[in-house]
Write a structure and sequence with these properties.
By secondary structure, this protein is mainly β. It has a single domain, classed as 3 Solenoid (UDP N-Acetylglucosamine Acyltransferase, domain 1). 0% of the residues lie in helices and 38% in strands. The chain contains no helices and 22 strands. The strands form three sheets. It has an eight-stranded mixed sheet with strand order 4-7-10-13-16-19-21-22, with no helix packed on it. A seven-stranded parallel sheet has the order 1-3-6-9-12-15-18, with no helix packed on it. It is globular and about 50 Å long. The protein starts with 6 loop residues before the first strand and ends in a 9-residue tail after the last strand. The model has no long low-confidence stretch (mean pLDDT 93).
Length: 193
């Protein structure tokens, strides 16, 4: 923490975070809560926080890096908030505005969450940026891509290899290219990890 002004790691967080890579620009803030844990894998967790951006990782979240690296990128002025008891499993989060991830959200290996088009298409079609919100108790399976402006209601499941470009109401089951609503999901608050 002495090398990274703006970095705050709760004393109860895993010592395995010492193997993580942190890149914090001036004015950046990264807060890691109590009992956040990961594996001791070199390059397993990479968190990059640009100028005046903020990343908050809630207590008891598992940044699982043995199946693939967990990568979190907050561009200048962006805000990423990950709630309590999350399970980020070899996934990629990228924000140019805001990502709000609720409590007890699971995000599977190879999944990606973007709140912006990554580049301008041409001089007339410029990059668009819209916040993404994932409600409590959601499960985003493996190799899912969530695009800008999407809101996923609580207790929802998005199936493997889906591309989600539209918002979902609470208790949704969705999958496909593009992902479509395919059914409903009950209460996920007591499902074990």
């Amino acid at each position: 923490m002495a090398r990274h002004p703006g970095l705050s790691i709760d004393p109860e967080a895993s010592t395995n975070l010492a193997s993580a890579h942190f890149a914090l620009a001036p004015g950046a803030r990264l807060t890691i809560g109590a009992r956040v844990h990961t594996e001791r894998c070199a390059g397993g967790v990479h968190i990059s926080v640009a100028e005046d951006a903020q990343v908050e990782i809630g207590a008891e979240t598992w940044l699982r890096s043995d199946l693939g690296p967990v990568r979190i990128f907050a561009f200048p002025g962006a805000r990423i908030r990950i709630g309590r008891e999350g399970f980020l499993n070899g996934c990629h989060l990228s924000s140019k505005a805001a990502l709000e991830i609720g409590d007890r959200v699971w995000i599977g290996p190879g999944s990606r969450v973007f709140d912006a088009d990554q580049h301008d298409l041409d001089a007339e079609r410029r990059q668009r940026i819209e916040p993404v919100r994932i409600g409590d108790h959601c499960w985003i399976a493996a190799d899912v891509t969530i695009l800008r402006g999407v809101e996923i209601g609580e207790h929802s499941v998005v199936g493997t290899r889906s591309v989600l470009a539209r918002s979902l109401p609470p208790h949704s089951l969705a999958y496909g290219h593009p992902a479509e609503l395919r059914g409903t999901i009950g209460d996920r608050s007591r499902v074990p990890v």
